[in-house]
Write a structure and sequence with these properties.
The complex is a heterodimer of chains A (113) and B (113).
Chain A: E1 4-7, E2 10-13, E3 19-25, E4 31-37, E5 43-51, E6 54-57, E7 64-66, E8 76-78, E9 87-94, E10 103-104, E11 108-112
Parallel strand pairs in A: 2-11
Antiparallel strand pairs in A: 1-3, 3-8, 4-5, 4-9, 5-6, 7-8, 9-10, 9-11
Chain B: E1 9-13, E2 18-23, E3 31-38, E4 45-50, E5 55-56, E6 61-64, E7 70-75, E8 84-92, E9 107-112
Parallel strand pairs in B: 1-9
Antiparallel strand pairs in B: 2-7, 3-4, 3-8, 5-6, 6-7, 8-9
Classes of the chains: A mainly beta (113), B mainly beta (113).
């Protein structure tokens, strides 16, 4: 059981480049989300989804797009990378029912120069 | 969701109990208390949660005061592998089922040999 898988683990971009951070889960979780974590800070919610075809904004959505075409996958797109998006990105998933705990991936460390 | 207050750091001797406090004085009646931890920049890991009764699982115990304004996470026999940042989070499980969590800066627990 792989859980939540994020790729790539590391990425360096130049300002203005675009890329997609991949997130996949094999636990049939309805809920998926993306967080970013900056040095010395807690995690901040970027976007989330409660099911295929449904997405919504979190606390810091600007500069990021998401889509949810399948239950398993929830990619995060940076259309024009900026140095302020240098961060560690975590994907998480859970069931919707009850107080299901969040399962996190191991993160993608992104540097924008 | 109610905000929480945690000490920024704590030390604990290996083999002793680690007691991590959390203040959530503005918690409402339907908000749960969750604890997660993050080991060395890995993805956060769920530990335990509760509403008003004390809870115990294989990882830890959660003690919630009768007025629910504070709680304590107890790691009964801390090991070096328990060195991590511990996050106390309170939230209500809303009708959409969205499992959006607000992570503060947590408590950095260092277990000392």
């Amino acid at each position: 059981n792989a859980g939540v898988t994020q790729t790539p683990k590391f990425q360096v971009l130049k300002t203005g480049q675009s890329m997609t951070l991949q997130c996949a889960q094999d636990m049939n979780h309805e809920y998926m989300s993306w967080y970013r974590q900056d040095p010395g800070m807690g995690l901040r919610l970027i976007h989330y989804s409660v099911g295929a075809g449904i997405t919504d904004q979190g606390e810091v959505p600007n500069g990021y797009n998401v889509s949810r075409s399948t239950t398993e996958d929830f990619p995060l797109r940076l259309l024009s990378a900026a140095p302020s998006q240098t961060s560690v990105y975590f994907c998480a998933s859970s069931h919707l029912q009850g107080n299901s705990p969040l399962h996190f991936g191991n993160g993608t460390r992104l540097t924008v120069t | 969701d109610a905000k929480t207050t945690q000490p920024p750091s704590m030390d604990c001797a290996e083999g002793r109990a680690a007691n991590l406090p959390c203040n959530h004085s503005t918690i409402s009646g339907n908000e749960y208390v969750y604890w997660y931890r993050q080991i060395h920049s890995q993805g956060p890991q769920y530990i335990i949660h509760g509403l008003k009764n004390n809870e115990t699982n294989e990882m830890a115990s959660l003690i919630i005061t009768e007025d629910r304004k504070s709680s304590t996470l107890i790691l009964p026999h801390a090991t070096l592998r328990d060195t991590a940042v511990y996050y106390c989070i309170v939230r209500v499980f809303d009708q959409t089922g969205a499992n959006n969590l607000f992570f503060g800066t947590g408590t950095r627990l260092t277990v000392i040999p």
